[in-house]
Amino acid sequence: MKVFKFVGYSFNRMHKAFNPNKISRSKQIVSIYCYKMRIIAGSKRGMKLLSPKTGESRPITDRVKESLFSVLYKYDLPNGKMVADLFCGVGSLGLEALSRGAEFVTFVEKNLKIITILEKNVEKAGFAKESKVVRADAFKIGATVDPLRRIAASEQKYDLIFVDPPYSTTRETKEGSPLGGLLVILQEQLAPNGIAVVRTNRRTELLSTGHLTVEQYGRLQIIERRQWGTMAVTILQQKSR
Questions:
Q1: pTM of the entire predicted model
Q2: Residues 6+ away with beta carbon under 8 Å from 224
Q3: Can you tell me the distance from the alpha carbon of 233 to that of 228, in angstroms, rounded to the nearest whole number?
Q4: I want to staple 36 with a disulfide (CB 3.0 to 4.6 A). Which of 51, 86, 123, 129 is the partner?
Q5: Between 3.40.50.150, 3.40.50.300, 1.10.20.10, 3.30.70.20, what CATH number should domain 34-238 receive?
């Protein structure tokens, strides 16, 4: 990746001197990528991840990611497991899982521009054979590998599913809400005792009084809730029929 820089100018001088009509096209190109995140452990430890310079993604800090995976280790995750990363953005959580030994990760993202960056990160990490990128609305299909099917085949059940939708879509958790409906779908896509990790704003409480009861999320039951800064992570587990 090439990054073009103006050398020998202060910011103010560069701003005043800049005239797009007087410079070559190549020098007008400004990289749309930057490095906001990295893989923090495992086989690809330290690898920097490409991210958009715009606010289209919500980077998760190294400290929070390490804390989250420390919690997942209690459930023998993700080493050797099938994982899905929904609303995956540039793939921070799914790539971290692969670096830590996950068998396979399905990435689901609907933004084509973000997918372009995601695919670059997957290729850079060398995980193309251990992953699949699906362009789709995760609220509609959940974690299925085939975007035309609502429920994954039995051999495609997931041991771990990351759910990281935009905060604006998680304010409501009642039946019929996008998040509530997604959690109903996921109960058919998780393996027995599988785990779903839902990231929301800390003010959002899944299954809170006045919203849904445990039964309304089918077999998914909350087993842990953690808060880091302005975000919260709710961990739900698939219970036996």
A1: 0.79
A2: 71, 234, 235
A3: 8
A4: 51
A5: 3.40.50.150
